[in-house]
Amino acid sequence: MITYDLNKVKDYQKLYRALGALGETKRDPNLDSVWFVSTSYTPEQASDHIRSATDSDDTHFVCRIRSGESAGWMNKDVWSWIQSHE
User: Which helix (H) or strand (E) covers residue 5, if one does?
Assistant: First the structure.
């Protein structure tokens, strides 16, 4: 899971291309700055990759979701996607 905040310069298309290059992605339309990514990258590698597409004042967080170690309220298709990519 990757979440981010772009601050002064908001080049979302550049960031979206970088996120898509990590692997297969899924988003919940109600969570604007959260992406679920199925990737072979480690969280550190994904973070470095995202960093190359953002400015020095932007922030992001990357974590690996483990089976049975997540909860929340989102669209059912997002939960199905997460479960199929564990």
Answer: strand 2-5
DSSP 18-78: HHHHHSEEE--TT-TTEEEEE-SS-HHHHHHHHHTTS-TT-EEEE-PPPTT-------HHH
Instruction: Give the single-character DSSP code of 6.
Output: -
What is the per-residue pLDDT across 38-54, written as a single tens digit (0 to 9) for each? Answer: 999 999 999 999 999 99
- Any idea what the Cα angle at residue 64 is, between residues 59 and 39, rounded to 5°? 90
Report residue 34 CA to chain centroid gap: 5
DSSP H or E run through 4: strand 2-5
- For residue 36, what pLDDT is reported? 96
Partners of 26 in the beta sheet?
Answer: 36
Cβ–Cβ < 8 Å for 3, 61: yes
